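wait is this the right file?? whatever heres the structure
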């Protein structure tokens, strides 16, 4: 018996296993807006950020490991794009942002990972990176990151008093700005104070923006803030669908992606036709 056909099959099988480890495709039925959340693969169970590369690509990451994943749109293929080291860096990653070919990740203490020269088409990159201190460790618990008009916007989930321990900031959302390579420390960009911002409505977990608005994701709602007047609108989330929303992406066509961290199950990626559909439940 000629062993070569069996050897060829074994090699092909190994290649398919390797490819399967790099790329995951979500079910096609979840690709359209308004569908139930797509269940993310196990390695993204604790998805903790979302950023737009372009109309055909999103980036996401998990909470504890420095892996960055690419989500192709509308195919919903998920590819491991970048790893910070081998073995990978472990940290409390809470946000991701893109500017040109640079990718930024931030931790809950304001430690900023700067990853230049990323190729958004190549899988399994092991790039060089640097770390910057935004000076926010004693100011607030950071959650969310977004690049806007030459600077990074950094929201505070919980604001600390001067000793860095006791939490304050009742009914307030505060956003800091930081220009990597220019600013020594982050500085306060703006703050919203309103009785409506109570409880989970002020605990920001994600941020995005466009020419007219800033968008803040919280466990309870999406907050749409006018860039010029800072007036805002609250759009409630369906708590049965979004149990722990962690990232928001506003596309140029007005559609919205939300990513959820589900430590007790599969993480989820939801797609809405526009922001109003987020509250259509």
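ok assuming it is, sequence goes like this
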């Amino acid at each position: 018996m000629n062993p070569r056909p069996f050897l060829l099959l074994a090699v092909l099988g190994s290649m398919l296993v390797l490819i399967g480890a790099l790329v995951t495709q979500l079910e096609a039925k979840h690709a359209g807006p308004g569908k139930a959340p797509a269940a993310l693969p196990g390695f993204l169970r604790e998805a903790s950020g979302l950023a737009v590369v372009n109309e055909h690509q999103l980036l996401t990451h998990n909470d504890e490991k420095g892996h960055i994943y690419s989500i192709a749109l509308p195919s919903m293929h998920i590819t491991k794009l970048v790893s910070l080291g081998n073995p990978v860096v472990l940290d409390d990653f809470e946000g991701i942002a893109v500017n040109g070919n640079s990718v930024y990740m931030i931790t809950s203490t304001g430690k900023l990972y700067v990853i230049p020269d990323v190729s958004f088409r190549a899988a399994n990159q092991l790039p060089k990176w640097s770390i910057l201190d935004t000076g926010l460790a004693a100011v607030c618990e950071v959650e969310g990151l977004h690049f806007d008009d030459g600077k990074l916007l950094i929201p505070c989930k919980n604001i600390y008093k001067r000793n860095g321990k006791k939490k304050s900031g009742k009914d307030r959302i505060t956003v800091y700005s930081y220009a990597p390579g220019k600013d020594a420390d982050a500085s306060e960009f703006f703050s919203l104070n309103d009785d409506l911002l109570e409880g989970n409505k002020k605990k920001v977990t994600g941020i995005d923006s466009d020419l007219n608005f800033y968008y803040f994701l919280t466990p309870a709602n999406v907050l749409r803030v006018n860039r010029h007047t800072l007036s805002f609108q609250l759009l409630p989330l369906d708590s049965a669908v979004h149990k722990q929303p962690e990232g928001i992406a506003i596309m140029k066509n007005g559609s919205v992606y939300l990513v959820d961290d589900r430590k007790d199950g599969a993480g989820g990626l939801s797609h809405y036709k526009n922001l109003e559909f987020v509250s259509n439940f």
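DSSP finds two helices and 23 strands in the chain. so i think its the right one actually
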